[in-house]
Amino acid sequence: MELVTPSIGLIFWTTLAFVTLLFLLRKFAWAPILKAVNDREETISNAMNAAEEAKKEMANLTASNERLLIANAKATIEMERKSAIADLKNQVAALSIDIAEKVVKGTLTGDDKQKALVNELVEEVNLN
Fold first, then answer.
1. What is d(CA 92, CA 32) in angstroms, rounded to the nearest whole number?
2. What value does the mean pLDDT take over residues 15-29?
């Protein structure tokens, strides 16, 4: 029956041992444990802040790259347009020289012959 109902002495010594152990743990173990937990929490917080900053910087770099790509595409389009215009001008100039050469080659004595040759050349150019 003694195990079920402990005596006053057992209760006193158990309580004293528990309070002593609690005091020693609080003095020597609790402070380092709390310090380690707080340090870990601060490290995690710093890592989260650094990750957020890196994410913002990555978004800024991506936006900057997009702007550069669009600007580069516009420059390329403008260069291609100028090249096409120059090519078209060269073709028109060559065509004009060919027509002038054919007109000059023929010795034309009358207006009817000149008109017939011009009409023939115009039809030839329209077909090509």
1. 89
2. 92
